[in-house]
Amino acid sequence: MNKLINVNRILSSGLLVLSSSLLVACGGGGGGGGQTEVVETVETEPSPEPTTPVETVPEPSPEPTPIATSLEEVQVAESFIFSNQQDIELQVSYPMLGDERAYLNICTQWKDMEQQSLEYSSCVWRGQISQSQMALDITLPAHASTLVAEVWQLSSGNVTRVHQELSLAELGVTSPSFSF
C-alpha cells in the first residue's frame, strides 16, 4: 500500500512540475506587457483515496459483410439470371395497301432524333412487312431503354418514312406493340 502511495506522490509531483514549466515557457498567458508579479504557491498533496477499479465491458461490434475475393465466394440469389439480354415478343400492325411495299427497321437508338434518323447499327430486326399483323421474337441488349420502329413505304417510286418510339420501361406493363 505504501508503494502505491509513493507512486501516486511521484506522479502528482511530476505533473505539477510539467504543467508549471509549460506555463512559464508559454509566458504565463498574460500578454499585458506590464510588470509581472510572481506568486509562489505551495501545494499540499491530498491523501490518496482508495479506489475500486471499474470494469467496462466493450460492446460487440457488428459482423462486417465479407467481401468476396474470388469467384467461388460470390453468392447470388437463385432467382438471379446471369443474362445481358432480354427476349420479347413484339406485335406490329401495318395496313397493307394494294401494290405498296413496306420495310421495317426496329432499332434501339436514334442517330439524330431531331432529323428522325436512326442508328442502323443498333437495329435488332430489319425486313419486309409481308402481313398486316406480325409477331416478332426479338432479343434486346440489356442496356436498351427504347425501341424505335421505322417503316419505309415504297409506292409509285416515292419513299415515305414513318417512325414510332416505345419505352422499354412500359414493356412489363403491357405487351409491346407498334401500330402504324
Provide a concise account of the structure shown:
This is Lipoprotein. This protein is 13% helix and 33% strand.
Give an account of the 3D structure.
Keywords: Signal. It comes from Agarivorans albus MKT 106. This is Lipoprotein. Residues 1-25 form the signal peptide. Residues 41-65 are annotated as: Disordered. The chain has 180 residues and is an alpha+beta fold. It has a domain at 85-179: Immunoglobulin-like, CATH 2.60.40. It is built from one helix and nine strands, in the order H-E-E-E-E-E-E-E-E-E. It has one helix at residues 2-25; strands at residues 85-93, 101-107, 110-112, 117-118, 123-128, 133-141, 146-155, 158-167, 177-179. A four-stranded antiparallel beta sheet has the order 5-2-7-8, with no helix packed on it.
Secondary-structure blueprint of this entry?
Elements: H1 2-25, E1 85-93, E2 101-107, E3 110-112, E4 117-118, E5 123-128, E6 133-141, E7 146-155, E8 158-167, E9 177-179
Parallel strand pairs: 1-9
Antiparallel strand pairs: 1-6, 2-5, 2-7, 3-4, 7-8
